[in-house]
Design a protein that fits this description.
This protein is an alpha/beta fold and 395 residues long. The protein has helices at 11-20, 43-47, 53-56, 60-65, 127-146, 162-181, 206-218, 308-326, 363-392, and strands at 2-7, 26-32, 36-38, 57-59, 71-75, 80-82, 87-89, 94-96, 99-102, 106-108, 153-158, 189-194, 222-224, 229-233, 236-239, 244-246, 249-252, 256-258, 263-264, 282-284, 287-289, 340-344, 350-354, 358-362. Among the domains are: 2-33 and 76-108 and 256-338, FAD/NAD(P)-binding domain (3-Layer(bba) Sandwich), CATH 3.50.50; 127-252, FAD/NAD(P)-binding domain (3-Layer(bba) Sandwich). A six-stranded mixed sheet has the order 5-2-1-9-21-20. The protein has a four-stranded mixed sheet with strand order 8-7-6-19, with no helix packed on it. It has a four-stranded parallel sheet with strand order 13-12-11-17.
Length: 395
């Protein structure tokens, strides 16, 4: 029985396991340093206090148990990979593999050329960092609930891509609801969405950009585009044009870099540390890289954005490629394109684009986005419940 190891339990890693687990000729090991799967696409709601921890985290041991002994989960950190010997070094053991899928994801790229950025801002790529920002935001809301007066308080969000926009919108919506119901002083919380690009959501369809900009203005968010951050000090931002901004706390979503991993021999990486895979998402004959850690391209050669959708599409492809190789067939080149995008914009409001030609906004777009998320989450929950019941019978 061939052994497939998947390193990383993000969107891509879990989707790869699901596809591979249907093959009786394969045994599968999933490795991650955390015991949970973090739903990063729901970070905006968790940070703003709309979602709870159980909405953004899934227990991995129970999830793997749900495959009824077809999948083994190991909580450990990979120390190194020897591709020549096809062996993985963990904390105190080694594992051999027949196929390996790297789904190690990415982390926030706190640019080193901006002094103080890492020290004085939060990221959202890791659950503990998102939790820290959520706690800071809730503390600020509580203070405003307790006080009916005071000066304006500024929240800085660096990066006006999808994550930054969704977080800003959800926070602004929560602030408006507080101001209407229990604490008018929360209206003194001002959110600044900052990006060096000339527009928010760079690279997205003009419809998405226009409708999102209108919604953000309606929510009272201060959009600062073409704003280059020079340095960050405790509670103060400095821009290259001489301006500055005092802030209570700051979140940074302005860039990613692939999570590092030690591999021998070294493999080609791009400028942000992503693996430069071939047309079949391989780095060598039986080694695949998927999701945010890989430089993915669509069928026309353009780079795919690092989204959950890209991770899942590449995971499905890698799993199918392994199945094809086991049958003695050569995998066809990876062929994928973005099928659509939805931007959550606070409350029951969203903007969406499907297949490059269908545009929706408002409540309809919100419920379409929620349906996609609900379907994904439900599948995970059902598998977790199966694993929980299975393990409970042995307790």
């Amino acid at each position: 029985m061939k052994h497939v190891i998947v390193i990383g339990a993000g969107y891509g890693g879990l989707r790869a396991v699901e596809h591979l687990a249907a093959q009786s000729s394969l045994r599968i090991t999933l490795i991650d340093k955390n015991p949970y799967h973090y739903l990063q696409t729901e970070a905006y709601g968790y940070i703003a206090g709309r979602f709870d921890l159980h909405d953004v985290a899934i227990d991995l041991p129970y999830w793997c148990e749900g495959f009824k002994q077809r999948v083994v989960f190991i909580r450990d950190e990979v120390r190194g990979i020897d591709t020549a010997q096809r062996r993985i070094s963990l904390g105190d053991t080694e594992l051999s593999y027949d196929y390996l899928i790297l789904a190690i994801g990415a982390e926030t790229n706190f640019f080193s050329f901006i002094p103080g950025l890492r020290e004085h801002s939060f990221g959202v790529k890791k659950l503990q960092r998102a939790f820290g920002f959520r706690s800071a935001f809730e503390q600020l809301l509580y203070e405003k609930v307790e006080s009916s007066e005071g000066e304006a308080v500024h929240v800085a969000i660096g990066g006006a891509g999808l994550s930054g926009v969704e977080i800003a919108a959800e926070m602004a919506d929560v602030i408006k609801k507080h101001a209407r119901s229990i604490a008018s002083a929360t209206a003194q919380i001002k959110i600044h969405l900052i990006d060096a690009s000339d527009t928010i959501l760079p690279g997205m369809h003009p419809y998405i950009i226009t409708q999102t900009t209108r919604r953000l203005h309606d929510l009272g968010i201060i959009i600062m585009t073409g704003a280059f951050i020079e340095r960050v000090e405790p509670h103060r931002l400095y821009f290259k044009d001489g301006r500055s901004l005092d802030f209570r706390f700051m979140i940074f979503t302005g860039g990613i870099k692939a999570s590092p991993i030690a591999i021998e021999p070294e493999l080609p990486l791009n400028r942000i540390g992503q693996f430069e895979v071939d047309a079949t998402l391989r780095l060598e004959e039986r080694l695949f890289a998927i999701g945010d850690c890989a430089q993915l391209r669509s069928s026309d050669g353009s780079l795919l954005p690092p989204t959950a959708q890209s991770a899942e599409r590449s995971a499905e492809y890698a799993a199918d490629a392994i199945i094809a190789l086991e049958r003695g067939e050569a995998p066809k080149p990876f062929d994928a394109a973005m099928q659509g995008v939805f931007v959550a914009l606070g409350g029951h409001y969203a903007v969406g684009e499907l297949f490059g030609r269908i545009h929706v906004k408002g409540t309809l777009a919100y419920y379409l986005k929620k349906l996609i998320t609900y379907t994904y989450h439900l599948g995970l929950k059902l598998r977790v419940n199966t694993g929980f019941k299975k393990r409970s019978t042995y307790m």
